Amino acid sequence: MTGKTLLDIRGVHTFYGNIQALNGVDVTVNDGEIVALIGANGAGKSTLMMTIFGAPRARSGKIVFAGTDITQLPTHEIARLRIAQSPEGRRIFPRMTVLENLQMGASLDKMKHFDEDVEKVFVLFPRLKERIDQRGGTLSGGEQQMLSIGRALMARPKLLLLDEPSLGLAPLVVKQIFDAIRELNRTQGLTVFLVEQNAFGALKLATRGYVMVNGNVTMSGTGKQLLADPDVRAAYLEGG
Ligand code: ATP
């Protein structure tokens, strides 16, 4: 079941110098939901993810997480409130082993739960257990994505942000990743906000979705509603 508002983004404007990337974005993520943000290349999806972490910072508007205004907080303080991300491009540490990468995700106060948390990651992604001593850079793209999500989970997040988890992966691997996200949400009640160019997969997975065009949210609805919407179908689902 989904509950009260966990993340509330209101009227957010973000700029890179003079370039306006977000133009008054409103997005809400409720406890227990999987929310998908879809949109074309350059629409501003990654910028929104990064703005949540305060880099770049919103020039105006407000971002509230679990009742705390995080709009002006430094990134490390935002992370401490237990928002974790798997960023665009995964950003795993290529020279470190799988286990060391997972250690990097656990903050010092989480080290006492380390074995338990690592085991949970390995239950979700058994492939990572098989590769435990392998360096991150030698993993396949799908395994690197699993590691990136696993590392984020080590922070015991209340909210997991995923930037294009399916990018560049084969369909079977995309399914494994999406199944794992669904499983995390179903069994642990983890709230997930994901950005995707794979609109079909993301909207099938999501409780609710938003469509972003040129730095604005132009449409929102349940995953099912958006999948059935003729404009969404024409722009993002057909021939894609
Ligand atoms: P993609 O799927 O390609 O990552 P996106 O929807 O995530 O697309 P953003 O990466 O957020 O879009 O980009 C939004 C806009 O901001 C684009 O016009 C982009 O060119 C611009 N932009 C992004 N990063 C920067 C930057 N570091 N400096 C200047 N402009 C940027």
TrEMBL record:
Q: Which SMART domains match?
A: AAA
Residue ranges constituting the ABC transporter domain according to the UniProt record: 7-239
Where along the sequence do coiled-coil regions lie? none
Q: Which GO terms describe its biological process?
A: L-amino acid transport
Pfam family, any one: ABC_tran
For this UniProt record, give its keywords in alphabetical order, as a comma-separated list: Amino-acid transport, ATP-binding, Nucleotide-binding, Transport
User: What Gene Ontology terms describe what this protein does at the molecular function level?
Assistant: ATP binding; ATP hydrolysis activity; branched-chain amino acid transmembrane transporter activity
Matching CDD domains: ABC_TM1139_LivF_branched (cd03224)
Q: Which family, according to UniProt?
A: Belongs to the ABC transporter superfamily.
PANTHER family cross-referenced by the UniProt entry: HIGH-AFFINITY BRANCHED-CHAIN AMINO ACID TRANSPORT ATP-BINDING PROTEIN LIVF
Annotated protein name in UniProt: ABC transporter ATP-binding protein
Q: What is the lineage of its organism?
A: Bacteria, Pseudomonadati, Pseudomonadota, Alphaproteobacteria, Hyphomicrobiales
